[in-house]
Target: Transposase
Amino acid sequence: MDNKDKYLFLLKHMGKLKEIPVQFDTEEFRPIFECARIANLKKEDYMLIDEERTLERRRELVIETAVNKAVEKAVEKERKKGKEEAITALLQEDCMPIARIAAVMRVENEEVLRIKKSMAIA
Model:
């Protein structure tokens, strides 16, 4: 039986099936049976499932948000680290004034001076 025949069979017999037939117990067809099971629930049972799904989705969103913030923070840290390395290299070359380095690197003069001061310490 190809998938087209399986879907036609399901459409015709879904209301009569009491359990999932073996040939339909696959990742492709399980969601259909899950939807049918939920559609046949009493209103109170449906509300509980809906509430559980809402809570689960909220938990997933909280985790997703936390992960995204952590990734953004890590990227920003690496970007800043890269900028500091570039500023350090320009300062070591002694090829342009501090104001020009700040303008090229799109940072404040104070940032370039801070990095220059840390270089003197090291």
The mean pLDDT is 86.
